[in-house]
UniProtKB/TrEMBL annotation:
Gene3D superfamilies: Regulator of K+ conductance, C-terminal domain. Pfam families: CitMHS, TrkA_C. This is SLC13 family permease. The lineage of its organism: Archaea, Methanobacteriati, Methanobacteriota, Stenosarchaea group, Halobacteria. It is a multi-pass membrane protein. InterPro entries: Cit_transptr-like_dom (IPR004680), DASS-Related_Transporters (IPR051679), RCK_C (IPR006037), RCK_C_sf (IPR036721). Its main location: membrane. It comes from Halocalculus aciditolerans. GO terms for biological process: potassium ion transport. One of its GO terms (molecular function) is monoatomic cation transmembrane transporter activity. The chain crosses the membrane at residues 12-34, 39-57, 69-93, 114-139, 159-178, 190-211, 419-437, 449-469, 481-500, 507-529, 566-585, 605-625. GO terms for cellular component: plasma membrane. SUPFAM superfamilies: TrkA C-terminal domain-like.
Length: 627
């Protein structure tokens, strides 16, 4: 440990070559596209592959350019996503969450403890992204029933899942990718429980922060009492009007009544003779004295009234009035999942209302509430739509992999009888990789056990087969459960790491970073690497940051005469804990809308946590592995 505090000695910086400049250009383009989202991340990944194989200066062959598809990390992540689908189909995580909710009651501290206590440990053994998708509705319901703002619990849910993801190799796709890159560059990857000890320290430190300081920094953006009209400030955007005898729209169908090219308005409900109609009203003809619920702004409403003979009816409708018959219709938030078929579409081009029998009243996108011109806005990952739909449509939406419905279905269709099978399969996937087979051979006297050596790819793929054979997952669900944008992202960024290494760009960057060793001790250089990786991860994909930073980290370690494996661990942990922006990690996006957060909330709560863990993790690495 004494050496860790001695100044490091850096070698000279190598000259810049044409190949380096070209690779730096590709990296800059990739970073720009990741940050601006001008292209979907999977399309950006394919573009990276194309550029690396077409430009001769990158020194990446076609075989190396597409090697990401055959990477053990890519295949392992694909298998783990399918296994996570199986777990979610059984409802075991939801059931566990509900039991913890019953324990929490209306105590905010116990609610927070239940949230972190479920999400953290579970995320160590199931990919943490699906864990958050599963728990968003559970935690939202827990908050409202306990008279707590969901804002107070949903951000800790995302953070806890990231903290839990550091417990094992399979907690995040980042860990699997980092292991694959380290194996290629150092000949040493991660075992199932390589960093479990440090992961526990990180989880405990993060939990203490969230339970003491963190929750006090989180604002109550969403009311504790569930009132979507108030929450989305729709008082001036949802109005009831009565159709007069002389109305121009009388005799027209609901679909024909409003000229959408002229007016930003939707008729979302019709009341006639005390009967409320919502489902399939597009073809229903409007009659005098019908009461219509219209989504539009006041200016457009005035124009419609003058043109079509409509009279206002009292005050704007409330949540209760829009849900007058809960069996017929309801209001609910839905979050656009990563990999959703709606990404890049608008409500018009996706035929949202006709396709899902649902009307969108408003939505949140990147912290902004959109109430006008809804049909013209392109949908992105994490966008949260306030939807009015029949109860059976909500149930269909809840099992659609395109969405996360921010309320649990009243009639969930879980395969609870398959819980023992699913749990046994996950334990087998983890156990066969983690068991010390040579030790078992010596204890049992069975020499053949010493020859056993299972990789996570082998056990995870075997687990997929087992889940299909036992009926935990149906064959068609295998493809629905995979977030293909993540798979393409992995496949695209892996050759970028190869290009950094083969052109000498990683060596050049490592030498530059190593210059800090002239002023800082080795542990200080390690800490700088953690901080820099964390900052990069907060603006681009965590997987991209791992591929970019690990080659540089290894070269830096060589330059300063330190342990390269320690630097790889620092990058891995930093990339798995992107707390300061909603775009740094998918789980942050999943809670962005339902929590009503602003962009700055993540920096306010996540900044101190990131700084705390940078110190805890750096010291932990130095103490456990040495630097």
């Amino acid at each position: 440990m004494v050496l860790a505090f001695l100044p490091a000695q850096a070698a000279a910086v190598p000259p810049v070559t044409t190949g380096m400049l070209v690779v730096f250009g590709v990296v800059a383009l990739a970073l720009f596209l990741f940050v601006t989202e001008l292209l979907p991340i999977d399309v950006t990944a394919i573009l990276i592959m194309v550029l690396l194989t077409v430009l001769p200066w990158t020194e990446v062959s076609v075989q190396e350019g597409i090697s990401g598809f055959s990477s053990t990390a890519t295949v392992a992540v694909l298998a783990m996503l399918i296994l996570s689908t199986g777990i979610s189909q059984t409802g075991v995580v939801q059931i566990l969450g509900r039991k913890m909710a019953a324990f929490a009651g209306d105590s905010r501290l116990r609610q927070l403890g239940a949230t972190v206590g479920v999400a953290g440990p579970v995320s160590g053994f199931i990919n943490n992204t699906p864990v958050v998708a599963i728990l968003v509705p559970v935690i939202s319901d827990l908050a409202h029933k306990g008279n707590t703002s969901p804002s107070k619990l949903l951000l800790p849910l995302s953070y806890a899942s990231m903290l839990g993801g550091t417990l094992t190799l399979i907690g995040t796709s980042t860990n699997l990718l980092a292991s694959d890159v380290a194996e290629r560059l150092l000949g040493r990857g991660f075992s199932m429980f390589t960093f479990t000890g440090l992961g526990l320290i990180v989880l405990v430190a993060g939990t203490i922060y969230l339970m003491t300081i963190g929750h006090r920094l989180i604002p109550e953006r969403v009311p504790a009492k569930e009132d979507y009209i108030e929450e989305y400030q729709l008082q001036n955007y949802v109005t009831e009007v009565v159709v007069r005898e002389d109305a121009a729209i009388a005799g027209k169908t609901v679909a024909e009544a409003v000229d959408e090219s002229r007016f930003d308005a939707d008729i979302i409900q019709l009341v006639r003779d005390s009967e409320t109609y919502f489902e399939g009203i597009a073809s229903k003809r409007i009659r005098p004295r019908d009461i219509l619920t219209v989504r539009t702004d006041r200016e457009t409403l005035e124009a419609l009234r003058e043109l079509d003979g409509l009279d206002l009816v009292g005050t704007p409708p409330t949540d209760a009035e829009l849900e007058a018959d809960e069996d017929a219709q309801t209001l609910v938030e839905i979050v656009i999942q990563s990999g959703s078929s709606l990404l890049g579409e608008t409500l018009t081009t996706s035929s949202f209302r006709q396709r899902y029998d649902a009307s969108v009243l408003a939505f949140r996108s990147r912290g902004e509430t959109v109430r006008q011109r809804l049909d013209d806005v392109e949908l992105r990952v994490g966008d949260t739509l306030l939807v009015q739909a029949p109860a059976d449509s909500i149930d269909r939406l809840s099992v659609n992999s395109d969405f996360i419905v921010a309320h649990e279905s009243e009639t969930p269709n879980y395969r609870t009888r398959k819980i023992p099978h699913a749990v046994a399969i996950i334990l087998g996937v983890v156990g066969f990789v983690g068991l010390p087979w040579p030790m078992l051979a010596s204890l049992t006297g069975v020499d053949a056990l010493a020859a056993l050596d299972f990789s996570i790819v082998q056990t995870a793929l075997a687990g997929v087969v087992a889940m299909v054979v036992t009926g935990v997952v149906k064959p068609g669900e295998i493809y629905d459960g995979v977030d293909w944008s993540v798979i393409f992202l992995l496949a695209g960024v892996i050759p970028l790491g190869i290009a950094l290494e083969q052109t000498g760009a990683a060596t050049f960057l490592g030498s530059l970073v190593a210059l800090t060793g002239n002023y800082l001790p080795v542990i200080g250089v390690l800490w700088v690497f953690y901080l820099f990786t964390g900052l990069v991860t907060n603006v681009i994909s965590n997987n991209a940051s791992v591929v970019l930073m690990i080659p540089v980290a290894i070269e830096t370690a060589h330059e300063v005469g330190s342990n390269p494996f320690a630097f790889v661990l620092a990058v891995t942990f930093a990339a798995s804990t992107a707390f300061m922006t909603p775009v740094g990690y998918q789980t942050n996006l999943f809670v962005y809308g339902p929590g009503g957060y602003k962009f700055s909330d993540y920096a306010r709560v996540g900044g101190p946590l990131q700084l705390l863990l940078s110190v805890v993790t750096t010291i932990g690495i130095a103490a456990i592995w040495g630097i």
